[in-house]
Inverse folding.
């Protein structure tokens, strides 16, 4: 049933592309929403990686950062580094609400999920925006990935389960420690729909994981069994902020 819903979702965007030929969200060339060249150029995160955060490590050992600050999340992964065409595409999705481009990237995430992750999750949720940010932007860009992922994985999508209860300042110029303090206690989850469940949180970009850990703490406090997270992109360690 949901498999059919996902097919319908994809067919809808594909037929729209026939009517209005798209340009690539990575490079701007006409033809495809996400072209083969940008797909090749996207720097994927693949094993060997830290079992906790998914950052590449030489022999698949746990990374120093996760050893020093064990994440609340069971594990988190990202499809590619936040760079080049991936950065362009995410910018376009965040500020121009390109839902079809988000769907094209979600398809790539789904391929990675099936190849490497296959976590047994019960519910899919996007990382929520504050109501103030939602009013300013009009939509939550993380939801543009979470919905097609939920459909593709055939798992219920429950965007209202987790709320951001406190508006937090932008994390862009904050250090790792400051980010943790900035988002601590910023989220709350309702226990119905979460209790005893394994949750998959979806976001566009993961930088330090501070936001995800704050979300995971709220979900675990509401009775979730375990929390995983999956994002389109990961900020490379060499640059501190998206
Ligand atoms: Zn392209
Ligand atoms: Zn790690």
């Amino acid at each position: 049933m949901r498999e059919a819903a996902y097919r319908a979702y994809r067919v809808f965007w594909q037929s729209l592309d026939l009517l209005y030929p798209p340009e690539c969200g990575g490079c701007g060339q006409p033809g495809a929403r996400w072209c083969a060249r940008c797909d090749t150029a996207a720097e994927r995160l693949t094993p060997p990686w830290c079992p906790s955060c998914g950052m590449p490590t030489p022999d698949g050992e746990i990374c120093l950062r996760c050893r020093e600050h064990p994440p609340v999340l069971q594990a988190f992964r990202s499809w590619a580094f936040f760079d080049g065409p991936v950065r362009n595409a995410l910018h376009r999705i965040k500020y121009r609400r390109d839902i079809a481009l988000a769907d094209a990237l979600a398809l790539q995430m789904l391929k990675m999920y099936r190849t490497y992750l296959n976590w047994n999750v019960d519910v899919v949720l996007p990382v929520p925006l504050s109501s103030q940010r939602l009013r300013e932007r009009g939509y939550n860009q993380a939801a543009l990935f979470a919905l097609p992922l939920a459909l593709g994985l055939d798992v219920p999508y429950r965007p209202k389960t987790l709320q951001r209860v406190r508006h937090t300042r932008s994390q862009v110029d904050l250090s790792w420690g400051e980010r943790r303090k900035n988002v601590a206690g910023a989220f709350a989850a309702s226990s119905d729909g979460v209790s005893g469940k394994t949750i998959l949180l979806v976001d566009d970009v993961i930088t330090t994981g501070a936001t995800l850990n704050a979300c995971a703490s709220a979900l675990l406090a509401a009775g979730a069994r375990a929390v995983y997270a999956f994002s389109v992109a990961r900020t490379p360690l060499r640059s501190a902020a998206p």
User: Anything to note?
Assistant: The mean pLDDT is 91. Residues 144 and 153 are 15 Å apart (CA to CA). The beta strands are 75-81, 123-126, 162-164, 187-189, 198-206, 226-234.
